[in-house]
């Protein structure tokens, strides 16, 4: 038997596993590295976050990724070269993080790598009926495994699509295993580049869990800030607070067909980008609007479309709590909008249920890797897969 296969077999039988979860989202701001100790599997899963850090991408790395990110036409050579190159950058970041943590590579059982999303194409985004949904993340798992000497599980989204889903959102699986509660209706809201939520009715079964993207999170606000304010994001919503929501622009953006598509659904910056803003301004016949007003409107758009999507699924009279995570939870104005739109709903950080809000997505991919090795196929009724699945491709270091 190949020694790595023997190691996988042994890992599956252990009571716990040390797994590094990696996440780099559509914001392209850096790599989240969450070192987790995971005990059990399935509904018995318990996670202890041992260490967490975010390694910022430098300008050169952002520029390289930007050459192929969310573009319908790119250099095939550049894309091919970036696939291993990004993995090598991530491997270096992992090795340095482990050294900083004081943990040897040999102490780590598995790396769970989401990879860098380059293009996400749900069926609603393209008109070609010959093709279904598709998504592409790069950062080759073999290169990660070889250059860290750690078994790596990567490319999680492909199985979800193969089984009838759209490749997102995948947070639903970990949300259920870690956050379901017998007595409380919980809504796990993650505001990253794209916003998504998982609804966990009290005492629910996995087949009763519901998860969907809602639309833009930070993606358009961040892109606009980079172009017009030379800043990576609107810290605390300060710029948006200086502006006034333009109702005509807000309504024009909300008329996009994506917001009329039923739930669950998924989307990415391929739709919600600078061009989306420019076309909405043009179509609304707006000729005089300040950058601050645009930021105020984008902030309100994110809030309203989140709330609209929540109440498309959750009955208005249901009592539930919202637990937030992702970069958008730090945008004070955005959270104020959510409070004003849902005055009777408690909105608090996911830290209140033991989940580090900035590490949450990296933790959830560590959980998916744990399920790949030690769990059983899972079926989420509202998440569009046709069969129970586990996710991830396995790469050995030798």
Structure characterization notes:
This protein has 398 residues and is an alpha/beta fold. The protein has 2 domains: 3-168 and 365-395, ATPase, nucleotide binding domain (Nucleotidyltransferase, domain 5); 171-353, Nucleotidyltransferase, domain 5. The protein is built from 13 helices and 12 strands. The protein has helices spanning 3-13, 59-66, 76-101, 141-148, 157-162, 171-179, 219-228, 238-241, 247-254, 274-283, 291-313, 332-341, 360-374, and strands at residues 16-24, 30-39, 46-56, 110-121, 134-138, 152-154, 186-191, 194-200, 210-216, 321-325, 346-349, 393-395. The strands form 2 sheets. Strands 1, 2, 3, 4, 5, 6 and 12 form a 7-stranded mixed beta sheet that branches. It has a 5-stranded mixed beta sheet with strand order 9-8-7-10-11, sandwiched between helices. Strand 7 (186-191) and strand 8 (194-200) form a beta hairpin. Helix 3 runs parallel beside helix 4 (141-148) and helix 6 crosses helix 13. The longest helix is centred in the first third of the chain and has 26 residues, at 76-101. It starts with a helix and ends with a strand.
N-C termini distance: 13 Å
- The CATH architecture of the largest domain is 2-Layer Sandwich
Report the sheet-strand fraction. Answer: 15-25%
Radius of gyration: 20 Å
What do we call the CATH topology of the largest domain? Nucleotidyltransferase, domain 5
How does the helix and strand content classify structurally? alpha/beta
| Sheet with most strands | 7 strands, mixed
Number of strands: 12
Shape descriptor: globular
CATH superfamily of the largest domain: ATPase, nucleotide binding domain
* Top CATH class of the largest domain: Alpha Beta
Mean pLDDT: 95
What are the segments in which pLDDT stays under 50 over at least 5 consecutive residues? Answer: none
Order of helices and strands: HEEEHHEEHEHHEEEHHHHHEHEHE
Helical content, roughly? 25-40%
Number of helical elements? 13
Count of individual domains: 2
